[in-house]
Amino acid sequence: MAKSDGTTNNVVALTTTKAYFTPKTYNQSSDFTLAKALNKFSYGEGEDITSISNKIPIDLLPNTNTLTTLDFCFAGNTEMYGFYDTNTSQDVKGTNFLTNSITSTSGIFANCYDPNTNHGIGFNISADCQPYLGLFQNKPNLVYINQSFANCQSIFGSIPNNLFKESPKLYNMSKLFYNCASLGINDGKTSISIPVDLFASCRSNLYNVSFMFSGCGFRG
């Protein structure tokens, strides 16, 4: 831009485009050390950690500020279901499983379904007693949950409108329920809709929901 004295200012053009994070992809890079370690467990088959008995201890994760990523941590475990309290050995909901330091659970339970045996993670997502209730609620730093339940074809029922309650930083939900063919089906026949206020708590930051419900049974 020329000034009145003939010199120029070095002007940097600014845009109003929002600065987005780069979405994660479906892989396990070498830095996902915890994910790679836990992904070796054979739940329910008497190997490695037999005390888990097909369930995850609710206090498995260390409550530190250093643990941030659980990508594909339990992916492909078809004999695993729910959480349990190590003190009481009772089944518990997964509300407190993710610590506040966690920023990414991409693919954490992806492919936890075997079409040959029909085994895998299966629950009525709308039921108050379902084990994964609250997994994505009240998580102040959670950003990436893409592909978390991809190809889990035993999940069924209607999605509650508070699924992401008080998790304002959620940014990438792409393929979250990809190919969950029973999701959105109430009784095996009746198709139900996606709640209009599903993203109310994270609307201002949400960027990617591509293929989120692709292959599900919702009416619309």
What report would you give on this structure?
The chain has one helix at residues 33-38, and strands spanning 56-57, 83-84, 91-92, 113-114, 119-120. The protein is low in regular secondary structure and 220 residues long. The protein has one domain. The strands form 2 sheets. Strands 1-2-3 form a 3-stranded mixed β-sheet, with no helix packed on it. Strand 2 and strand 3 (91-92) form a beta hairpin. The longest helix is centred in the N-terminal third of the chain and has 6 residues, at 33-38.
How is the topology of this model organized?
Elements lengths: L32 H6 L17 E2 L25 E2 L6 E2 L20 E2 L4 E2 L100
Keywords:
single chain, 220 residues, little secondary structure
Would you kindly provide a brief summary of this structure?
By secondary structure, the chain is mostly loops. Helix content is 3%, strand content 5%. The protein has one domain (50-220).
Query: Number of helical segments?
Result: 1
Query: What's the shape?
Result: globular
Secondary structure tally: strands: 5
Number of domains: 1
Supply Rg: 21 Å
Strand content: under 5%
Largest sheet: 3 strands, mixed
What string, H for helix and E for strand, traces the elements in order? HEEEEE
- End-to-end span in angstroms? 52 Å
Largest sheet: spatial strand order: 1-2-3
Regarding quaternary structure, how should these chains be classified? Answer: single chain
Structural class: little secondary structure
